[in-house]
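As described in the Methods, two query proteins were run sequentially through the folding procedure within a single session, without resetting any intermediate state between them. The first query and its resulting C-alpha cells are shown here.
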Amino acid sequence: MKLSELAALTNSAIAQGDFDLEIESAAGLDIARNGQITFLANPKYTPQIKETRASAIFLNENVELEREDIAVLRVRDPYLAYTRALRVFNPQPEISASIHRTAVIDETAKISENVEISANVVIGANCEIGENVKIYPNATVYENVKIGANCVIHSGVSVRENCEIGANCIVHNNTTIGSDGFGYAKTEEKAWLKIPQTGRVVLEDDVEIGANSAIDCASVGETRIKRGAKIDNLVQIGHSCTIDEDALICSQTGLAGSSVIGKRVILAGQVGIAGHLKIGDDAVITAKSATSHDVENGKILSGIPAFDNREWLRSTAAYRRLGDMAKAIRELTRKIKELEQK
C-alpha cells in the first residue's frame, strides 16, 4: 500500500517522505523493519527512534525527527493512527458460510443463511442467529437466545437461556454469558436457600468480552452491558449490574450485584466494587483498589478503601518513610524525657 493511501486511511498527513513509498505492515519501534510503519506515543521510547529500521512513523506535532531516511506521518494521536494501520493490514477474515455436520441445532432455531457454525456447536430452541455470525467449535447456546449480526463467539463459550447479544460483539473463549447470579436466602435452620435466577443478560452492540469471564443474569430483570463496553479476561460481573457505554473493565475485576458503572469508566486490574454502588461517568479506579461507596463523575481513586488518587500517592510516599518517622519519634521522646528529668 502506498504511503499516501495509508495516510488517508489513518487520518494523518505526510510531513516527510515519498508519497509512493510502499508500506506492507505495521510494527512497534523496536521490531519494525523496512517496509513497515511504526509509531511513538510514549516519550520514554523516544531514544528508540534513532535505532528503528521502520520505513515510516506516526508522530504528533510536538516530536521532532532528526532522521531523513524515515517517512513521517503527522497525526494528533499516533497510537490511534497505528491501531487503524494495524486494522488495515490485518482485516478480519470473511466467514465461510457453513454448518458443520456435528453441530446440533434445534429445529425451531432461526439461523441466517450467511453464518459459520463450527464442530460440536449446540444451539437450543427458539434461538435467532443473525447474518455473518461465526461460532467456533464447542460453543453452547441455550434456548431463546438472540445473537446479532457480525458477532464472533469463540470456542467454549456458553450463552445461557434468554440472553441477547447485539451486533458486532466478540465473546472470547470459555466465557459464560448469563450464569446464575449469586443469590441465597437464609432459612430458619440457617441453611442457604437458592433464589431462582430468572432474569437475563443483554449485551448491546459493539461489546467485547474477554476469555474466562462470567456475566451473571439477574434474579429478575436483566444485567445489561451497554454499547461499546469492553471487558477483559477473568472478570466477574454480578447479577443486575449495568455497565454503561464505552466503559473499560480490566482483568480480575469483580463487581458485586446491582452495581452501576457509568459511561467511559475505567476499572483497572483487580478492582473490587461492592454491591448497589454507582460509579460516575469518566471515573477511574486504579489497579488493586476497592470501593464500598458511590464514586462521583470524573474522580480518580486508588487504595483500599479507595480515595482520591493524589492523596493516595502522598499517603504511599509517607508510608515508605514510616520506619524513619518511627525512629525519629522514639528519639524525640527520649530527649523529652531527659529534659523533663533535669
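Immediately afterward, the second query was submitted; its sequence and C-alpha cells are:
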Amino acid sequence: MNELWISNSYAKINLGLNVLERLPNGYHTIETGFCFIEWNDRFEVSPHGKMELSMSDERIPIDDSNLIVKAVKLLQKEAGLRDEFKISVQKNIPAGAGLGGGSSNAATILRMINKIANLGLSTEDLAGLGKLLGADTPFFVHGKPGIGTGLGDEIEYLDIQPDAYIVTVFPNIESKTPEAYQHCQPLGEPDFSLRNILLEDDIEEWHYLLQNHLEPAVFPRLELVGNLKDQFYDFGATYASMSGSGSSVFGIFTQDFVAINAYESFHKLGFSANLTRPKFEPDLGVYKKEI
C-alpha cells in the first residue's frame, strides 16, 4: 500500500513594518510583527522513484528557483537525505502578495520530509536550514507569532495573534519586494515601540500607532493597493494595512458580522480574499493517509 502524507502551509501578515536602516549590501534592517492567517496551500507528498514537483498554479516555476526544490536540495546536502518524493501543491496563497507563500512552502516541506524520512532534525535545526532559504522561513518553521528584527530573521516568539477577525485581500496585481525597498525611505528608530504596541495597546489604538513604512513606496506605483486600504476603513475595519511589501491588504475587525460583510463584499468585487478567526493557530501536523 502506498503512503500519502498531507499538510497545510499557512500565510502570514505583517503587523507593522518599520524599515530602520539600509545596509551597504542593499538589504534593510526592519522590525515587524508576524502573525498567521488561515489562507493556506495544501501539500501532498509520497515516496517516488525521482524528485517530482507539481503546482496547481502553472505560472509558478517548478525548477531549481522554486523554494520547495531548494529546500529538498538543502536536506540532501545538509541532512543526508537520500529518498526521493513526489510533491503536489494545491496553491491558494497568491504569489507576489506579501503573504510569505514561498517561505511558508519551504518550511512546510522541510517539516514534512523531516518526518517522512525520519531525519531526526529538531525544530531549531529546521529553522537554521530555513534561514538559508529566506529571512522569514524560520518563523514559518516554528509556526508561532512573534516580532522579527534584523533582516526579519531574528524572531522573538510572542502571543501577538490578534483576538479579532482578519480579512485579507489580494488585488490581483503583484508587488515586487526589491522595488518596494528600493523606493522606501528608512526612518530610523520609530517613535513608538512596536513590541509595546502589539502587546499592550488596544487594537483600536493601532490606527494611530502602527505603520507599514513600505506603503509610501508602493501606493504611488500601485494605486489600487492604497485604495483597498481606504476601502477597509469604509467597511468598518478597526485597523487596516498593507502586508509586507504588498500587494495584499488586510483589515482587522472586532465584530464578526462586520468582518463577514467586508469579506463577502470584496469577493463580489472580484478579489481573492480570506477570513481568519480570532486567535487563529495554524495546524502544523503532517498526516499519513494510506492509499
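Residues 101-116 form the longest helix (16 residues). We note this only descriptively and draw no conclusion about the first query from it.
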